[in-house]
Amino acid sequence: MPFTVAIVGRPNVGKSTLFNRLVGKKLAIVDDTPGVTRDRREGTGRIGDLEFKVIDTAGLEEAFDDSLEARMREQTEHALDEADITLFMIDARAGITPLDSHFADWLRGRDNPVILLANKCEGSAADNGIYESYGLGLGEPFPFSAEHGVGMNNVYDAIQPAYDKWMEENAALIEEEKLLAQVQTRTIINEEGEEIEEIDTSKSPLQIAIVGRPNVGKSTLINHFLGTERLLTGPEAGITRDSIALDFEVDGRKIKLIDTAGMRRRTKVNEKVETLSAADSRRAIRFAQVVCLVLDSSLMLEKQDLTIAKETIDEGRALIIVCNKWDAVKDRKEQLQKLADRMETSMPQVRGIPIVTLSAKTGRGTDKLFPAIFQLYENWNIRVPTGKLNRWLEQMTEAHPPPLAQGRRLRLRYMTQAKTRPPTFVIFANKPGDLPGSYLRYIANGIREDFGIDGVPIRVMMRKGENPYESKKKKR
User: Where does GTP 1 bind (predicted)?
Assistant: First the structure.
């Protein structure tokens, strides 16, 4: 576990702005609306020569019932339990509020070292708030501005003593982790029989995005796998706002699960925060390797689900359909048939998309999900040898020759796989622009069927050019 810093404070004091500045990316959603952050979010923070784990938390609220605010406060408490040092932020321009005083008293009763940060100190309007903050009993405040980056040297000075002490106490463990983290290479044999070195990515985490409409059980599913209430859940729709990445392990294989905000139709989105959340979810899809589209089993593949699926396929990601709340379905055979029919008519370009039925709440059927994901990931990474492809292409064109173009036959000279993830194939022809889309679909469907590449997007592109082996044949 790296040195860990938790950022806490009442709503709208700039915690997420500081988090984004420390991680060097706009990972957390920032808006003037109080209470945007709900789940605790983690990232790798850097300031000067210090590198550490930083946790952004929800705004502290004085709520101790079953409300959403109370559950957010519990998430913040978990972050504090994990942290080595706590950064308690106040808004120096607004001065010290009763809520600031209340939570300062609460933090003093905990074992964590607490550092007082006075935010929004880019002008003289913050002076009174800085003087008032001495009354919180947390020591001297460190003034800075998270938005403008002014005074970040003060934040460095606040963290450094505790960081240096922790590094000294954990020196042996840190050295061991550095050795394990070194880039590993492996020797492989290429198609020409030559030994080459490549980076071994088998130990890199498999990134899986959990997406879907609001309130279908995405966070509940992740909590089930983690074995803890790591993410906020509840009957309220749209609880999740940020895309939260969580490290996980299945049978010794590293996984990064990414929980995302529910994605509604754009015409129904009228709040800025929800617009930002949806954009964050789409970003998660772009950077994932496998995308799990979670459906409510009582509403199989609605229009918005199809939109999400199409975006996933267009991005070239591997897609798996997860039918949650399966325990509540009465006629299961009818629902599965309805889903299969909808996929056949609406997503014909990707056949064989895996479907997993489960209940995130009870855990029933969840054991089937990761085996399906791993098989799908293998299909997404499949590589077909060039020689095998060209023998196959010859058989396909003999069985069903390309159509004539302006009275002349189109000749498909040569085929190769350009890349994986998703499998992408290039065909060289004498007149590539004249080949109809129906014939390309014939080729793509043949590849999928004959080489067993089910459930992932397959891209077939045309290029004009000669067979690169033709000149070699002539020389012989």
Answer: 9-16, 56-60, 119-122
